[in-house]
Design a protein that fits this description.
- The N terminus is likely disordered.
- The protein has three domains: about 170 residues; about 120 residues, no CATH class; about 170 residues, von Willebrand factor, type A domain (Rossmann fold), CATH 3.40.50.
- Strands 5-4-3-6-7-8 form a six-stranded mixed sheet.
- With about 500 residues, the protein is α/β, with parallel strands linked by helices.
- The protein is built from 27 helices and eight strands.
């Protein structure tokens, strides 16, 4: 190849990122996946809530017009594999206006629980769509036909946006039997035969209970879920103890701080029972709890037994995931824009990746400088993550330049970042030099944890793979892709929308 051809066939940056540094545009499909699985409508370091909402709406509408089939599959993926809610529901509302046929196919795959339905109807109304028309009402009816008594007491939430009762008033579903008729009447706030609805009846009694003993009786009789109880009464220590036994694993994790504050763990039995539940490997696998949730709880609780249980829980969460083969370099962005939840997530995940390489890995932290994190395969993920703190600016090329300078040959580079370069030379420029001088076939995995639209690498680069958002499937994806599996967009394209629920 001539020098001129080498020079002028370089893929050059096409846009600037939030800090004015050169970046690349992604394909519409990639941008769409990124928006779905990273953008939770919260404020970020570089973009406020309203800006993100406007960008998301524009992207949803663009995708609905240009590739509605992919859009439908991506909404299903984001809700079920990415564990996101609001963005898939927002996209679903927009899809209903463009492709009612696809909307009908995926409605029950995106609207999974009553709070999904409430938010979906709220979004429709906010968009000026009212009740959404016949196509929407048909799907709401399908959903309401499966409403249970448990859902009725847990999710009705009268006075907080669209309740199940509001949805029934909107869609006018026909009850299948006397119990469902009583349930629909109760949800509408009408007189109903509560003898057909024992959990509802127990909740009504709980709300009127005058003593702690009565409260405990109705909680046990109705097997009332913790969310219902804490909304109906102010829990005492005894009530929290009763609720501890029936909380799902995720709820138990979220309420550890409250349980500790009220003295529940003063009982050795309670302490050991909860610790055992937090380290139940089968329950953890079923709950699909993202690792940063453990990190958040770890920072809130003080009891050493609980902290040890949380350390073990994170190790078990990653225990059944595949090993990463070949030599890997893991680079964790610790710059100022990563401060907070981004770094909590990134630290836990990077350390889990490290442990999955059996130590055949470089693990470096970077801002504008690079340092060896010196991780331990024996020390727990949470303990090590707790010692990593944000600082400085962002130079995404710095760790790759160090890799080149020290002539480390690796088979894959994994960089965890929000991609907001504001110093030094770009990641892609350093990656090309590394490929030219050390390993031409090195793969790069960019785990992007923020919703910004710019990219560090052009989409045409065949050896680079973008991963947006967080789930327990990310490590599997990296391990599979390193062996030649499809990209995330291709994974989504393979989804069968006609498959059974």
């Amino acid at each position: 190849m001539s020098f001129a051809k080498k020079l002028f066939t370089v893929i050059r940056p096409t846009i600037r990122n939030q800090d004015g540094y050169p970046a690349y545009t992604r394909s519409a499909e990639e941008q769409y996946v990124q928006t779905l699985v990273t953008n939770t409508f919260g404020n970020t370091f570089y973009a406020d809530q309203q800006k993100l909402l406007m960008e998301a709406e524009a992207l949803h509408r663009e995708m609905a017009q240009s590739n509605a089939q992919f859009m439908a599959k991506a909404l299903v993926y984001a809700r079920n594999e990415g564990y996101m809610r609001l963005q898939p529901l927002f996209g679903l509302a927009i899809l209903s206006a463009y492709r009612p046929d696809l909307f009908a196919k995926i409605f029950l795959k995106v609207v999974r629980i009553p709070s999904d339905l409430s938010d979906f109807l709220t979004i429709l109304k906010g968009m000026g769509r009212g009740e959404g028309g016949r196509a929407v009402k048909r799907q709401v009816n399908r959903f309401l036909s499966g409403v249970s008594e448990y859902w009725a007491i847990k999710y009705n939430g009268r006075g907080r946006g669209y309740s199940l009762g509001d949805a029934i008033a909107t869609a006018h579903p026909k009850p299948a039997d006397l119990k469902q008729q009583a349930l629909f009447r109760y949800l509408r706030g009408q007189e109903a035969n509560l003898s057909l609805l024992p959990q509802v009846e127990a909740l009504e009694h709980l709300q009127r209970a005058a003593t702690e003993a009565e409260q405990l009786h109705w909680i046990e009789t109705g097997k009332l879920p913790h969310e219902v109880v804490t909304g109906a009464v102010k829990p005492t220590k005894a009530v929290w103890e009763a609720l501890t036994n029936q909380m799902p694993t995720f709820a138990l994790l979220r309420h550890l701080n409250a349980l500790e504050r009220t003295g529940v763990f003063e009982s050795r039995y309670n302490l050991e029972t909860v610790a055992a539940r937090l380290t139940d490997q089968r329950a953890l696998q079923k709950a699909k709890i993202l690792p940063f949730r453990f990190a958040k709880a770890f920072r809130q609780v003080q009891h050493p037994v609980l902290r040890d249980a949380l350390r073990d829980a994170v190790e078990y969460t990653f225990g059944n995931l595949p090993e990463l083969e070949d030599r890997t370099a893991i680079f964790l962005d610790i710059s100022g824009s990563m401060d907070g939840e981004y770094l909590q997530i990134g630290s836990v995940f990077a350390l889990a990746l490290y442990k999955k390489t059996q130590g055949n890995t470089l693990f470096w932290l970077f801002d504008t400088e690079v340092e060896d994190a010196r991780p331990s395969r024996r020390d727990s993920i949470l303990s090590q993550a707790d010692r990593i703190h944000a600082r400085g600016g962002t130079d995404t090329g710095a760790p790759v330049r160090k890799l080149l300078a020290e002539r480390h040959k690796v088979d894959q580079i994994i960089i965890i970042t929000d991609e907001q370069q504001n110093s030094g030379s770009p990641f892609y420029e350093a990656l090309l030099r590394y490929r030219a001088k050390v390993n031409l076939s090195v793969k790069a995995f960019i785990i992007d944890i923020a919703p910004y639209r710019s990219a560090m690498v052009p989409p045409q680069d065949p050896g680079t793979f973008y991963i947006y958002g967080w789930s327990d499937t990310v490590l599997s994806y990296i391990a599979q892709t390193a062996k030649g599996y499809d990209s995330m967009v291709q994974q989504i394209n393979a989804i069968d929308l006609d498959a059974a629920q």
